[in-house]
């Protein structure tokens, strides 16, 4: 870790919606399980290195264990080697409905992923969003910290709310993990001006890719013609303050060496053996997709692509098995439950339609698996597929490559995932809306001649070895420490 961080004696404070671990008091003590999801995976390793505080939504009521919870209610994490504290902010049912299910996931999420037909603006959603952003601001404002790192679309108003109360005592850096949409799409939001004002109060705002940053700059220019935008430096002058913006060259994400080692561990191999025996996966090439069950991940398009492929080219039936590892997500929102249902039904339909006595085309796993199992699955698959309709980064694509170290595999990745910027041209990039092209890319990956596969694998491995959550962290911390 950078010495300058240790020299800074007031700790780093990280704000996210989701807490890094879920906790259950068992009677013998507290059982903490790390939550899934790219953001949590990355930030947990960050705070384990830097120490500090993490503030997130969660309830501390049900799981108190006096031996690990300090007097003020903070929890020390990770449980087996505590290096930072977690403060959980409890929300009531109405706040959860309006802030989380409502504004965050029915307005901002679809809007920022350009799924405008799914945007559902209800007046109470916005009120709830403002209220909860204020609630988190209250939680942070008196803490002994000078560096505040605000994550993602749940807290776009927090930087402004904080700045109003701390007048420059702390440096605030925001990182947006999802795409920032084009100005013409952002304008659809009735609260676009307030949201921009909220984010612009940060000292610095980070984005995954250059195009998301460019979208943000254009939104500012359209909304606030009097502001100044310097494209070279990324500096924005708005009212009397300056906001820096940047693209973090290193995507948030993974430690490739660790992923490679864990994917090749005895436990990952054992879990792969169990999984492959259970589903009879030993002989046929494996194509794998690992996704949260979210419409932005393009799972239904991928299944359409397979159906179209097997329909157009019966010779590719039995040529491979597609394994869909799907993780349930946001199941308390109707739209997500509908999507889960739609995916499951589609898998059944495809299996009914194409299965033979010796071949089940799709293996569908929708229970949550230990991370080692996911890594084992990546490692033993021949092809990975990411077909997001939009995706801030997509850690799965990077993990798949890192986990395959020492083996050869091919990756098909949507051109609309941020990860495509790092992985093209050695991954096969596709437009997932072009279902035939997606199916053809999967076949191209499965049947790729050995020398081409070896070349592409080598370059992909090289690109991903250069990607590291550690570097992403350093770049962010540089911004925080400026
Ligand atoms: C958001 C942005 C951006 C999946 N199933 C299981 C499991 N996973 C892990 C994967 C991977 C992570 O979840 C998913 O990461 P993604 O990046 O694909 O997706 P989001 O959750 O949508 O993340 C995204 C990210 O934030 C970071 O900025 O890349 O664009 O949408 O790590 O391996 N892990 C375990 N069991 C499972 O069943 N243990």
What is the topological layout?
Elements: H1 3-7, E1 12-18, E2 21-25, E3 30-34, H2 38-50, E4 53-57, E5 75-77, E6 84-89, H3 93-112, H4 123-141, E7 147-151, H5 158-166, E8 171-176, H6 183-186, H7 192-200, E9 204-207, H8 210-223, E10 228-229, E11 236-238, E12 241-247, H9 256-263, H10 266-279, E13 286-292, H11 299-312, E14 321-327, H12 334-354, E15 362-365, H13 371-380, E16 383-386, H14 395-403, E17 410-414, H15 420-423, E18 428-430, H16 435-446, H17 450-465, H18 469-481
Parallel strand pairs: 1-4, 1-7, 4-6, 7-8, 8-9, 9-12, 13-14, 13-16, 14-15, 16-17, 17-18
Antiparallel strand pairs: 2-3, 5-6, 10-11, 11-12
Helix pairs in contact: 3-4, 4-5, 5-7, 9-13, 9-14, 10-13, 11-12, 11-16, 13-14
The structure holds GDP-alpha-D-glucose.
């Amino acid at each position: 870790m950078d010495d300058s961080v240790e020299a800074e004696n007031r700790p780093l404070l990280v704000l996210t919606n989701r807490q890094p671990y879920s906790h259950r008091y068992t009677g013998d003590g507290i059982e903490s399980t790390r939550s899934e999801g790219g953001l949590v995976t990355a930030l947990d390793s960050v705070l384990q290195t830097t120490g500090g505080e993490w503030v997130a939504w969660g309830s501390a009521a049900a799981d108190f264990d006096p031996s690990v919870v300090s007097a003020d209610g903070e929890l020390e994490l990770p449980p087996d080697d505590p290096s930072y504290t977690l403060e959980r902010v409890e929300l009531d049912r109405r706040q959860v409905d309006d802030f989380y299910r409502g504004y965050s996931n029915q307005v901002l999420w679809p809007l920022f992923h350009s799924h405008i037909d799914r945007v559902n603006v209800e007046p109470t959603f916005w009120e709830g969003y403002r209220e909860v952003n204020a609630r988190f601001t209250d939680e942070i404002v008196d803490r002994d910290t000078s560096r505040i790192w605000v994550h993602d679309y749940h807290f776009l108003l927090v930087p402004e709310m904080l700045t109003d109360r701390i007048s420059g005592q702390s440096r605030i850096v925001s990182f947006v993990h999802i795409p920032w949409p084009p100005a013409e799409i952002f304008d659809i939001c009735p609260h676009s001006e307030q949201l921009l004002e909220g984010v612009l109060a940060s000292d610095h705002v980070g984005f995954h890719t250059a195009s998301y940053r460019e979208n943000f700059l254009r939104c500012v220019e359209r909304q606030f013609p009097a502001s100044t935008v310097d494209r070279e430096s990324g500096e924005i002058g708005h009212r009397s303050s300056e906001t820096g913006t940047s693209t973090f060259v290193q995507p948030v994400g993974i430690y490739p060496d660790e992923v490679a080692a864990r994917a090749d561990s005895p436990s990952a191999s054992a879990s792969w053996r169990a999984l492959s025996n259970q589903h009879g996966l030993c002989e046929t090439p494996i194509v794998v997709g690992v996704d949260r069950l979210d419409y932005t991940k393009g799972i239904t398009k991928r299944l359409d692509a397979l159906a179209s492929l097997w329909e157009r080219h019966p010779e590719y039936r039995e040529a491979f098995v597609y394994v869909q590892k799907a993780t349930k997500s946001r199941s308390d929102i109707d739209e997500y439950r509908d999507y889960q249902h739609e995916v499951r039904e589609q898998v059944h339909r495809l299996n009914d339609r194409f299965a033979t006595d010796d071949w089940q085309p799709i293996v569908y796993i929708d229970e949550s698996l230990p991370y080692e199992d996911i890594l084992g699955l990546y490692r033993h698959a021949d092809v990975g597929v990411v077909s997001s309709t939009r995706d801030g980064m997509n850690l799965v694509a990077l993990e798949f490559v890192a986990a395959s170290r020492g083996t050869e595999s091919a990756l098909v990745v949507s051109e609309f995932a941020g990860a495509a910027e790092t992985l093209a041209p050695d991954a096969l990039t596709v437009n997932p809306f072009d279902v035939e092209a997606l199916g053809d890319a999967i076949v191209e990956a499965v049947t790729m001649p050995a020398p081409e596969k070896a070349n592409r694998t080598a370059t992909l491995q090289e690109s991903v070895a250069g990607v590291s959550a550690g570097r992403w962290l350093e770049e962010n911390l540089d911004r925080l420490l400026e």
